[in-house]
Amino acid sequence: MSKKYSLFCKGDVIRTNPEKGFYGIAVVLDDGEKMELSKGCWSYPMCHIAITPLLFQFEVTLDDIDINTLKPMTFLTYFKQGEKKIPWRNKLCIDIYTTRNKSNLPVIGNIGTTSIWDNPLPFIVSENGFHLCGDVGDFFGREAYINWCREKGIELG
After folding, report:
1. Model pTM score
2. Which domain, by its residues, includes 59?
3. Residue 6 lies in a domain
4. 144 and which of 24, 100, 112, 127 could share a cystine (Cβ 3.0–4.6 Å)?
5. SS3 140
6. Using the 8-state DSSP alphabet, how is residue 100 labeled?
7. Per the structure, how many domains does the chain have?
8. Residue 108 contacts residue 13 (beta carbons within 8 Å)
9. What angle do CA 61, 64, 68 make, to 5 degrees?
10. Is residue 98 part of a domain?
11. What does the pLDDT look like over 10-52, one tens digit per residue?
């Protein structure tokens, strides 16, 4: 017997929990669409989700957010060369996830998405585009927490 999960829908505002005691915001940008992963093999319904740079140290609600300022964050990625960390690229934090809310993250509201992202959202996976990430995990939105640590000068392991 398979377990039933709630499904994300376009405009859902998700409260993430990227680190104990921290809460972030992500937004579902489109409705679920199945992708053909290989000939005749189809995915669960997939959607694009944007992680925002917002991070709170309390269980944020929709009333705590100015939805007009919600934007996907860009996240500076690094690669290691020996002991040295070298900046690689700024990654737009929009990726492709299943619509299954397997981590039972709270959906705290539903909003229009055109002010957040009004560009095409193709279901084409590429190195410089959107990545296929599967189900949303327990520490979804971790980029917002890492960004916060970098701004505070906190070194992560």
Report:
1. 0.90
2. 12-152
3. no
4. 24
5. coil
6. B
7. 1
8. yes
9. 110
10. yes
11. 999 999 999 999 999 999 999 988 888 788 888 889 999 999 9
